[in-house]
Structures
1.
Amino acid sequence: MSLLTISGLSKRFGGVAAVDDVSFAVEKGEILGLIGPNGSGKTTVLNMLSGFLRPDAGEVHFAGEEVTRLSTVELARRGLLRMFQMTRVFVQITTLDNLLVAGMAMGLTEKEAGHRAQALLEELTLTPVQYLDAGQLSGGQRKLLEFGMCFIEPPKIALLDEPFAAVHPVMRETMASFIRRRNADGQTFVLVSHDMPIVVDLCQRSVCVNAGKVIAVGPTRSVLESTPVIEAYLGSSSHV
Ligand SMILES: Nc1ncnc2c1ncn2[C@@H]1O[C@H](COP(=O)(O)OP(=O)(O)OP(=O)(O)O)[C@@H](O)[C@H]1O
Ligand SMILES: [Mg+2]
């Protein structure tokens, strides 16, 4: 049985069919790429999967249960966690405190959260800035901090919306190795990204959407080389 199954998911905004009858499944332990030109519906799919938007139609099953209408908090408790295209950290407290708050919100003791925070700071190369307010971090460092906050209590599935966008290449590699290492330990991801070399490198399989519809699904290279996908990208102003 798949870890996450999406069937017939749809969402309209006024006259725009942002997501139109989308179905796909995510297998336990894989990194699934979710790609497509700008405005093709990727973020809207993640918004519905993570409880930020109500679908007009369709169903989501996660870990054997129907979860279509659950709130973000209920989904996070069940182990479905989502990272945003726009980074969300608390800018007026330190990097370390952001991790501690995230850990305690997930029910860890202060001591346990402290241990895990130190290990994550090290792994994410944030130890030197642990006592700086998060507002003083660069965009890339904030993104790394957000990874740490998501993984202080590792979710069953992590949904990542363009984590590499506008991030310095060195930090991009820190992030990519973090994802690779966690995946080697069995962590499941859905990765939305316009960075095709990273998608090819990280994602065994990909789903491509265009104008709200799935136009290809399969091994990432064959998806990227398929005619509908090439046509979709050529017909848009996207960065491939
Ligand atoms: N809250 C909203 N209200 C109205 N229209 C919206 C809203 N959110 C998204 N849309 C529209 O829905 C479509 C899909 O948008 P979405 O943000 O899901 O695309 P995306 O694939 O994530 O794009 P990008 O690659 O640029 O991040 C677009 O036409 C967008 O303008
Ligand atoms: Mg988006």
2.
Amino acid sequence: MSGRAHTLSNEQATLDFAARVAHAAVGGAVIYLRGDLGAGKTTFARGFLHTLGVTSHVKSPTFTVVEPYEFSAGSAAHFDLYRITDPEELNLIGIREYFSPGAWVLVEWPERGENVLPTPDLDLEFKHFGEQRNVTAIARSERGRHVLRKIEWDSE
Ligand SMILES: Nc1ncnc2c1ncn2[C@@H]1O[C@H](COP(=O)(O)OP(=O)(O)O)[C@@H](O)[C@H]1O
Ligand SMILES: [Mg+2]
């Protein structure tokens, strides 16, 4: 993925980045979270959802595929498609329902849902960088460009 890589020096830096994105993503957003196992995708989701107002524990949806959240500002869904082998499985679980306007949707392993998932607003890619991580962001909609402008990152 192109775009400038930003260093995330430790777990807290990933949580802080997620909080900035959440503050900027007013009115809902679809965000893809790419990267290998351990790259920090679930950490980002935790920081993002807690910033939106989720007070419960954010657990990895590795086994459940999706964890839905309801909170005072609206609703969110956190997907992990690692175990999906056929994107058609996503239609069976009624994936469309989670993408209502105004909702926040985070998707780990979006490449497993190709042709079924809607285009995201933001496409984030996390990479191991020694003990640290880095992240690259690409906006794929006007809403996504708005988020990157608000956090003062370059939009492609
Ligand atoms: N920026 C970072 N630097 C170093 N470690 C990090 C960073 N962000 C997250 N981690 C750590 O990486 C580990 C795996 O993170 P996780 O979010 O579960 O990855 P993924 O969901 O991509 O598999 C966790 O122990 C987390 O604390
Ligand atoms: Mg994960």
